[in-house]
Amino acid sequence: MGQLILSLLLLLSFAVSSSAVILGDVPLNYTHVCDPVRFRNIGLDMSEFSYCDKSLPFDVRVKDLVARMKLSEKVEQMGDNATGVMRIGLPAYEWWSEALHGVSDTGGGSTFGGAVPGATSFPLVINSAASFNRTLWKKIGQVISSEARAMHNVGQGGLTFWSPNINVVRDPRWGRILETPGEDPYVVGTYASNFVRGLQDIEGTGNTTDLNFRPLKVSACCKHYTAYDIDRWPGVDRYSFDARVTEQDMMETFQMPFEMCVKEGDASSVMCSFNRVNGIPTCADHRLLKHTIRRDWNLHGYIVADCDSVDAMVKAHKWLGDTFEDAASQSLKAGLDLDCGGSYRMALQNAVYQGQISESLVDESLKNLYVVLMRLGFFDGRPEFASLTKSDVCSESNMKFAEEAAKEGMVLLKNNDDVLPLSSDKYKNLAVVGPHANATIAMIGNYHGVPCRYISPIQGFSEFANVTFSAGCGDVLCKNRTLVFPAAQTARNADATVIVAGLDLTAEAEDLDRLDLNLPGYQKELIVQVAEMAKGPVILVVMSGGGVDITFAKNHPNITAILWAGYPGQEGGRAIADVIFGHYNPGGRLPLTWYEADYAQQLPMTYMKLRPDNEQGFPGKTYKFYNGTGVFPFGYGLSYTDFKYEISRSDQIIPVHVKISKNQLCRHVNYTDPGEEPTEGCMAVVVDDLPCKETVAVKVSVENIGKRDGSEVIMAYSKPPRGIHGTHRKQVVGFERVFVPTGKSEDVRFEFDVCRSFSIVDAVGYRILPSGNHGVLIGDGERRIPVQVKISFHH
């Protein structure tokens, strides 16, 4: 009887955990499914199950596993909480874990408490994007996946993480901007591929012959596919919204990051979104899933629905009057392998019995799912990570790296008379006021776990000065002005004042879009009164994901400096203080445009087109198309030092001769003025019809001519030939972040793929390469250096 009870306890323990088996607080001696000891304990002989034969290929093993299940058992594995089939030795598994900016307990696949009470909480993605540092993005992924593996080894971590969020920011009111890498599709895709590589890649496995079976550290997921950027706005919500998107915008903006995430990042999962695109729910769209993700992009992994997207098809979209069996079968046929929710488990068996789908389609999806788990070592273990344990979570080095990441993402927006950095000798008494002055949990935003610790702004500033704190507002919404005057009085008696204001999850969040672009409540009044009564310099620190209209602060003579801190993570307070007191020279750039408040009144959030519409008075969206004035532009950011750029070539016009065949068809391009059209030769060629082997190289020397060491982000944009109708003003085609000591210089080499960097998408959905003079702009603002690339076609 005692042995039976022990076996039952072991069975229950493995079913609850998706990783190491734990009895009480003591880890047992196996951490994977195909362990002979585990099979003996549940009364099975492992040698009888070919899916545990390590000598066989993964696809053969998975075929054996799936074939052993009854249909009723198969469908039970196709929700996020897969039940397992213990009669064949298959344990339960929770697919849903999150790792947006650190291991999270959202979803239930990873948990905190006991051996691992918390994990390192990095800055939100919008902050990391502001660093424009590929190396940083990949390393954040590597640290998170190491902590995830350590948690897995002690029975508290999953292996499949539904991160990152790579939706392009189309509208500044979207509540989930904080989760994203910003508004430029190339930057978003570059972030995606690097972060995913950091999460997934195992050193030494990059030369795997068949990428379908490449080993994984953890599994990453590109989400939310596609054209998803409305959550809850008056009259519409994400569960029922139909995004009416042109093919031009789909190709040019919404699809690019996902293509890069799958093809360059080799992500092992894609999550489809709640919304419809042009009438069809994304999770039931055969063209979007099987045609594009699987066939064109060659996904090596599985496709999962956002939680409860299949349910929303029936209840919210009421798409074609579907029953649950209809919706589930249409989604499965479109290529959806896993339903985060209960619709598949509830409806798929009936759908098979009703003849809507074949059982073989169910098998196909299960194979996609279980091959990923085999690649992760769920069945065989991953000995290369066996030594990771609780001491590898929240290590001092990881927390120090989180602080470095926070500082790299800080963006200096204003610094009149070089008031920053402050000197501890001169500014000994500091007033720190505002609703975020003592922020802790607000700094880590959403999709967070339990951080290792919090360093609030007050704690950070206390290391440099004597701090007097006054909140000024009861909370971020600041609906009461009674605390405003006491805060202003505090500033009157200080050598300098730091106001920490902005937004939090009560103002912008998942399922909560913004109605305006202003600071909430009486925050503006607080900032102005403090600025007018303060004795010394006033520094405004803004915590937010989306931009806010702080034109009043930008123009206020008493507000001498402005720093955007985003949501800087657990070490945020120290990072902010280090920047303001000069222990770190800020080098971040805004990854999105900050619009003036009246932008929100010019067009509804539901208007999906990015290009301006002069007839309706819509000004366009993102830096690529916006034709109005803004508070701060995309790519803006100051430093405590000065940099100088030089192009290391004498000629400023680079000729590119693209060879085409005699029978090559040329495309017509519409120009706003017919006089600007090329008068001879081929106007443009469809990119898919070209070999696309041509490249253009530009080398830039970046010299630090200031008095402080610092990092500089060198942006490279392409600009299409003048006069082409309806195309972008410019687009990012490269960027590099370099550290340059004072008095020194660094060379940065850009190599542009001609087809990728200089092509455009025309109004009917062709990606074409136009002939003519294309611009390359290196840098922003005063440091911008133009180069011309002259493209011509020759037989």
Oligomeric grouping of the chains: single chain
Shape: globular
CATH architecture of the largest domain: Alpha-Beta Barrel
Number of domains: 3
The DSSP helix count reads: 23
Largest sheet: 6 strands, mixed
Summarize the amount of helix as a percent range. 25-40%
- Please report the distance between the alpha carbons of the first and last residues: 85 Å
Q: Low-confidence spans: pLDDT under 50, at least 5 residues?
A: 1-29
State the CATH topology of the largest domain. Answer: TIM Barrel
Quote the average pLDDT. 94
Structural class: alpha/beta
Query: What is the beta-strand fraction?
Result: 15-25%
Structure description:
It is a single chain. The chain has 795 residues and is an alpha/beta fold. The protein folds into 3 domains: 330 residues, TIM Barrel; 229 residues, 3-Layer(aba) Sandwich (Rossmann fold); 152 residues, Immunoglobulin-like, CATH 2.60.40. It is built from 23 helices and 32 strands. The strands form 10 sheets. It has a 6-stranded mixed sheet with strand order 14-19-18-17-15-16. It has a 5-stranded mixed sheet with strand order 23-32-31-26-27. The chain has a 4-stranded parallel sheet with strand order 5-9-12-13. Helix 7 packs parallel to helix 9, helix 12 packs across helix 13 and helix 17 runs parallel beside helix 18. The N terminus is likely disordered.
